[in-house]
Amino acid sequence: MTRHWTPLAIAYLVLAIAGLVITWTFNAIAIAEGNDFIGDLVSSGPAVSSITNDLLVVAIAGSILIIVESRRIGMRFAWLYIVGSAVTAFAFTFPLWLAMRERRLAARRAENAQHETPPPGTA
After folding, report:
1. pLDDT tens for residues 108-117?
2. 30 CB contacts (<8 Å, ≥6 apart)?
3. What is the C-alpha to C-alpha distance for residues 82 and 74, in angstroms, rounded to an integer?
4. How far apart are CA 21 and CA 27, in angstroms?
5. Gap between the Cα atoms of 106 and 112, Å rounded
6. What would the mean pLDDT of 94-120 be, rounded to a whole number?
7. pTM here?
8. Tell me, what DSSP letter sits at residue 72?
9. DSSP of 54-90, one letter per residue?
10. CA distance to 29, 84, 90, 109, 120, per residue, from 20 (Å)
């Protein structure tokens, strides 16, 4: 079904796919090389620690946004995006949520427009 796929929703979806492919490419390399993934994040120097903490704060703020905004606009199962980020990547789940949010907002706009327009033959 292609209803409510706005250009913005498609852009977010493309970013979600890119986030999944890029992060999991590097995750696969780390696994294949037998690297200590968590250890590398916290002990590979100040630059890595800086970006790790930077992204952690953004992921927490984004997770709060996902919950609050989803409740506000009536999106169900928002918690799945946050849980999904633990097993995929926030770089995937956040743009995916943005795409689904955009679709939800487009659907609401369409519903409102439908209710505001009088039926044909009346007026």
Report:
1. 999 888 887 6
2. 37, 40
3. 17
4. 10
5. 10
6. 88
7. 0.81
8. H
9. HHHHHHHHHHHHHHHHHHHHT-S-THHHHHHHHHS-H
10. 14, 11, 9, 30, 46
